[in-house]
Every structure is written in C-alpha cells, then in structure tokens.
Design goal:
alpha/beta; FAD/NAD(P)-binding domain; 5-stranded parallel beta sheet; elongated; binds flavin-adenine dinucleotide; binds NADP nicotinamide-adenine-dinucleotide phosphate
C-alpha cells in the first residue's frame, strides 16, 4: 500500500515529490509515457529558455525539468515512466491502474497539467518554437519577436491578455478572430479595442504558417468572403484555450465548467477527500511553472495532513 501516488511530471508533480520525499512519505511518481502527447517533464520540455523561474536567470526548459526530477529522486521519490490509465476513487484505499497493474494508495496528488490546443495547420510543426508559440507571457520577450508584426489567434481572455502583453515588444499586433465577436470579458475587450497597437481581423482563420528557417508569414482566409491573403509576421501566438488532462479520472473528481479540476479555494483539496490537485490541471488563470511548483508544495502538505488525520482516527 502506497502513502502517496503523484500523477504527472511537471513542476507541480516534482515540487510535491520533493516535499513528500523530505517528509519521509516515500512517494511514488507516475511521470507518464508521452501522456497527452507531452514528454515526461511536462510543458517546459516543449520550450527553449525559461527566464522567469526564480534562481535561474536563464535555463533551458528541458534542463530545468531534469534538475527537478533529480531533486525528487534525491529527496526519496520513486519515479516510474508510466502513464496512469484509470483510477478508482469510489472506496478507500484508492486504486490506481497502470497497464495491467493495480496499485492501492492512501492519497493521490493529481498534477497532470494541461495541453495547449493547436490548430494543426501546415507549417505548425516546422515552426513550433521557431516563431510559433502557445505562451506569449513565456516567449513574447524573446529577441526574435522584438519590433515585429505579431499575430495572435483567438478571441478569449487569454488572446486579449497575450495581445496586450505583446504590444510591449511588437511593432504591432494582429488578432485573428474566427467570429465577428470576442469571447473575452467586456473589460478585456475595452482594453484591446483601446490599444492602438492592436488591430483585429474578424471572421478570419489561419490556413498556413509560412517561412524558410523561421516563421515569416501567415496565410489567412476570411470565412465570410472566402478571400485569402498573406500577413507578413515574425511571430504567431496561439490562444485557443487549453485542455486539462483529466480524461483518466472518468468523472470521479468534480470539474469546473471549464474542465479544470475544482479545488477548494486556497487549498489543493478536491471533491474527494484524500485526492489533491495542483498545477495547470486545476489552474485556468496563472498557468506558470512557478505557480505550478507552489501548488505542488501545497498538495504535498495537504496530503501529509490528511495522512496524519487517518493515523489519528
Ligand atoms: P505540466 O508541465 O503540464 O506537466 C504535466 C505532465 O503530466 C506531462 O508531462 C504529462 O505528460 C503528464 N501526464 C498527463 N497525464 C498523465 C497520466 N495520466 N499519467 C501520468 N502522467 C501524465 N511557464 C513559466 O513559468 N515560464 C516559462 O517560460 C514558460 N514557458 C512555456 C512555454 C511553453 C511552450 C508552454 C506550453 C508553457 C510554458 N510555461 C512557462 C507554462 C508552464 O510550462 C506550465 O505552467 C507548467 O509546466 C505547468 O506545470 P504542471 O506541473 O501543472 O504540468
Ligand atoms: P477560451 O475562453 O476557451 O477562448 C478560446 C478562444 O480561442 C475563443 O475565442 C475561441 O473562439 C478561439 N478558438 C478556439 N479554437 C479555435 C480554432 N480552432 N480556430 C480559431 N479560434 C479558435 O480560452 P481562454 O481565453 O484561454 O480562457 C479560458 C478561461 O480562462 C476563460 O474562462 C477565461 O475567462 C479565463 N481567463 C481569464 C483571464 C482574466 O480574467 N484575465 C485571463 C485568461 C483566461 P470562439 O470564441 O469562436 O469559440
């Protein structure tokens, strides 16, 4: 019987593993085997330099995750490179299913992250991280985007926030919106409309990312008139929303309407006592490595308290 099973391998999972390991709880981490299409180590394995994680002026995303993994092991975590297929939270101890294996555990920490939605247009794979990004806050300040025309796709709050953020670096920002309205909150819309560096192209879909070594243009189509055109651009930012990785839970933990795991505010407690959630799988607002790590620490402390309460019963 395990004390704590941690599912995931991003900053949230490793912060939880470090704290649980140091608490001598002998945590078991299932880091996933390309779960949700992402390598063990999580979203930061898909990026280059990380410049906003305290303690590192600049560090490669994959390097940072290698260091976190090593620290988890150093602190006593056991890590298996396997994906959790399903869980049974209907009775305590909980059951965790991994391939043909079924492991019982007193607590579970869910740190399975979220996957940024992509369009799947031609050129996307080729120019990913060479002009295309799904995180303006993370990548927008990079030199390759300075004083360039930058394109943001999406009409939600994230798109508005990213477009506004990018105006600090870009010569101008073009938002491609597939409908003739924004989904973003009115306050966000007002800020977007008021910013002279932002122009909106309504009823517009991106068809192709074009370039040689890096992105140089975006081929677009007006879905009302059918007219195609080319926008010369140095950057393309997707703000299409994220899919939290919760399918394996099969509805056994309460989710918010947005699909993220619902947690009690200020804690990592979920609808199931003994099951905790941290990182991007429960965070639709901040979605940063440092906030994920912070909530991973909270999850380990919450789980430790729960285990103590089990013992004293
Ligand atoms: P994730 O990093 O999403 O990791 C979750 C892991 O769990 C994944 O490896 C996944 O495969 C695994 N998993 C999923 N399901 C299962 C399962 N069933 N069983 C086992 N494992 C599973 N933030 C910053 O602070 N600074 C940056 O510079 C920065 N740059 C970014 C660049 C890009 C391109 C992207 C996409 C994001 C960036 N972010 C950055 C955001 C940051 O990466 C995330 O906020 C952070 O990684 C979230 O951590 P997490 O621990 O919640 O989960
Ligand atoms: P979102 O609200 O789901 O918006 C996604 C946007 O992408 C929508 O405009 C959608 O268009 C568009 N889109 C999706 N798929 C597309 C495709 N294939 N082609 C073109 N466009 C596509 O996601 P989000 O903006 O990330 O926000 C998620 C949640 O977090 C929301 O609840 C939001 O309010 C919240 N949030 C809040 C803040 C804030 O308060 N400051 C900041 C960020 C996020 P349609 O509109 O046509 O569907």
């Amino acid at each position: 019987m395990e004390n704590i099973i941690i599912i995931g391998s991003g900053p949230a999972a490793h912060a939880a593993a470090i704290y649980a390991g140091r608490a001598r709880l002998n945590p078991l981490v299932y880091e996933g085997m390309l779960a949700g299409g992402i390598a063990a180590g999580g979203q930061l394995t898909t990026t280059t330099e990380v410049e906003n994680y305290p303690g590192f002026q600049s560090i490669g995303g994959p390097d940072l995750m290698v260091k976190m993994r090593a620290q988890s092991i150093h602190c006593g975590a056991r890590i298996e490179t396997k994906t959790v297929d399903a869980v049974d939270l209907g009775q305590h101890p909980f059951k965790v299913f991994v391939g043909t294996q079924c492991v019982e555990t007193k607590t579970i920490i869910i740190a399975t992250g979220a996957t940024a939605k992509r369009l799947g247009i031609p050129g996307e794979e080729r120019f990913w991280q060479r002009g295309i990004s799904a995180c303006a806050v993370c990548d927008g300040a990079l030199p390759i985007f300075r004083d360039k025309v930058l394109v943001v796709i999406g009409g939600g709050d994230t798109a508005g926030e990213e477009a506004l953020f990018l105006t600090k670096y870009a010569s101008n920002v073009i938002m491609l919106v597939r409908r003739d309205v924004l989904r973003a909150a009115k306050a966000m819309q007002e800020r977007v409309f008021a910013n002279k560096k932002i122009t909106l192209q309504w009823n517009t879909n991106a068809l192709e990312a074009v370039g040689t070594e890096k992105l140089e243009a975006v081929r677009v189509k007006n879905n009302k008139t059918g007219k195609e055109s080319m926008i010369a651009a140095g950057g393309l930012f997707y703000a299409l929303g994220h899919n939290p990785n919760t399918a394996f839970l099969d509805g056994q933990v309460a989710l918010e309407a947005t699909g993220y795991i619902a947690t009690i505010s200020g804690t990592t407690l979920t609808s199931v006592p003994g099951v905790f959630a941290c990182g991007d799988v429960q965070d639709k607002v901040y979605r940063q490595a440092v906030t994920a790590a912070g909530s991973g620490c909270m999850a380990a402390l919450d789980a430790e308290r729960y285990l103590s309460s089990l013992e004293s019963r």
